[in-house]
Amino acid sequence: MGAVGIVKLSGNDSIEIASKVCRLRSGKEIKKLPSFKLALCDVIDNNNKALDEGLVVLMREPFSYTRENVVEIQVHSSPLIIQKIIQICINKGARLAEPGEFTKRAFLNGRISLNQAESVAEIVKVQSEKALYSLYKNLRGMFGEKISEWQKGLAFIQAKIQVECDFSDRIGTTDLQATFAKEINTIRQNIRKQYDRSKKFQNLQNGLLVVICGKPNVGKSSLLNAIIGKERSIVTPIPGTTRDAIEELFLIEGFPFRFVDTAGIRESQSYIEKIGIDKTKKYLEEAHLVIVIFDQSQEINKEDYTLVDLVRKKPHIIVLNKSDLPSKIEIKDVNELYPQEKIIKISALSGKGIDRLLDQIVEKVQLIKDNYDEDYLAFNFRQQNELFKASTFLEQAQKSLEEGFPIDVVSIDIDEALRCLKRINGEDIDEKVVDSIFNNFCVGK
What we know:
Blueprint: E1 4-10, H1 14-21, E2 22-24, E3 39-44, E4 50-59, E5 70-76, H2 79-91, H3 101-108, H4 114-124, H5 129-139, H6 142-167, H7 174-206, E6 208-213, H8 220-228, E7 246-252, E8 255-261, H9 271-286, E9 289-295, H10 302-311, E10 316-321, H11 331-337, E11 343-345, H12 354-364, H13 381-402, H14 411-425, H15 431-439
Parallel strand pairs: 6-8, 6-9, 9-10, 10-11
Antiparallel strand pairs: 1-5, 2-3, 3-4, 4-5, 7-8
């Protein structure tokens, strides 16, 4: 629980309602307060009794978040106090906000675009530093500006096509078709690049799946604990202790990684352990990266060979654990199983070699090297879908021109692409779609 709780009012009557709820210590009327200046007040109940002291601030239209008159009442963050103030405001004529209603009003009143509004919802649940910086740029309208730039480019092409159709007898000429095809392709490539990078970034934002696997008792659970810096998995000398997968989120270079400690793979008669091994195999199928652990104090056996086929097609890192113990494994034997792979020696118990392992993880996952924080990205399915459709329509327009269709024919596909881009910023969009977007917001946004 924080130290300060805030009750926010927005709308034509917000200042009048606030004047019935707050009594300024200065004795002045609230409606005479200048905008954006905090004033000390007592919050009074329906019987004119003070129930808390706090601060009140006015943000007059149009210079507020919603472009309406907004009042914030800042008090001690007791749930009882907050609930009492909300009820008093309702008694004085206010109503509870619907989910996302403040941001919805900001959109409907033209303060922000729809993709900016969606960035508000995304920034609340962001899990990585890189996403945070990109979302901030979206919130500032930079992604919307890029969309508008593409819209202007396509509109200019449309205008030139219209001129040629109205005043020229060259509509079907090859040179015109080639010129327009080139211009369309340039915009299409930029849109497609934006779509591809957004999809890749979404995978990163959701957390890259790193599966820790090996035969029983090689130190998988100890490694997970060493990476995240706390005891998350149970560690015992008894093989087969981990029966179910244990997953932990961990940030590396600003991106979330989902590290999974899995059940050791071996032949087992235990029904429960078999279920755990089956889960391990499913995780391996979905993994972005696999860490294969050997216990260097034990010789390689058939259980180690079993893993080779399971991880062969996945990016993987080979780890020799228990480097603090005498080695019974020859490096050449490991290289025979996993040719051309670097082998990292660690001690999960002491932490030796863990930093080198994390560096190797970053090196293996090439996507993380891309400087995503320089991009303005589409962060949700709706935006990505509109980018994909716009790219597809432009691809069709380009193809039509290259196949010799008259230039006026491609106008239809360009119009469709323009509509897709407009919908990203909230232009030409169905009211039901807008409602569904804001219904997913939390109350207070």
